[in-house]
Model the fold of this input.
Amino acid sequence: MNVLTIILMAVLVFLSRYLFLEPKLPVNLSPYMQRLLSYAAPALLAAVIGPIIFVHTHGVNLSVQNPYLWAGLCTVILIMLTKRILLTTTLGFICFIGFKWALTLSSQTL
Amino acid sequence: MNQNSSVSKAPLIEGQEIKDEENYKDTVRRAAIDMMPLSVAVVPWGVMVGAYGVASGLGAFNTQLLSLIVFAGTAQLVVIGMMASGLGLISILMTTALITSRHLLYSMALRERIAPLPWPWRYGLGFLLTDEFFVHCTKAQDSRAGTQADRWYMLGAGLSFYLVWNISTAIGIVAGHWLPDLAHWGLDFTVAAIFIAILFPNIQTWGTGFCVLLSMIIAVYCAANEMKLGLMIATISGMVLGYALDRWRESNQ
Done:
């Protein structure tokens, strides 16, 4: 059952990736459409980042106790300063662990 | 993110025909190296998916099978949760369709580059078309489009990412047996960190800035209300706002 589900999922995901790569599909993208699509990457990245940072089990989390928020801000600052992806993500993750640990600790002592 | 390449798209670059097999290998290797920051950064996320699959009782085989043939992190994570709570085939497939709908945008955007290729290339590159692949292969500096080397470059980027994703899933499966709590360590933050690192240096126009802001707000709202189509709604809204704003500013200059 699970294997069948996974195979059907794979077909579905592949079709969504392949659909517009099929030359027989009668679609011609105008230059305007192409320019519009150039905004797809930034929009998508933002749409993935937002919920990871702000949405946790209890809905939107805007509290100062949210380690994702602080570590996310640090990551933004790091990438603007260094422009290096791997260095930034590594340090960003270390920040996250640090904030998580510190905030858990402080919420226990309060 | 090549909003600078504007409406009058430059004609495809001719030449740079690479016939020597050794050069294909070089291109593939160079692509894999260029992709490295994204590949390495995705490791914790792959480990998390592997550990989560095992922790949810899906079993090592099925967890790895997801990474091998579905190869879509977000969908994998959501579906593992649904399978663990015993939801039926139809609801799992509908959720998958909603989450994966954003790939339609990618294939549309890469249509010019991939659709003219022979079918093994189309199917292969289509299979490898992930968020990271799309972002990496459509960078503003990208001048490979239209060259013979382009397909090899995309193959190298996609394939190396596929290998790393599957190896890290396997690591997560093994590690998850020893550290059952691994799935709740907050490894999902690494995805946010990678995407922040790719996104922020590329915000160079007002349109892109507002596109990012709107898309993020809508995505947060939809996620908080458990709307599965949120990613798609947020992305399209952001795109339209960014495009409209930049066009409006240009026409007023």
Observations:
- DSSP finds twelve helices and no strands in chain B.
- Confidence is low (pLDDT under 50) at residues 1-20 of chain B.
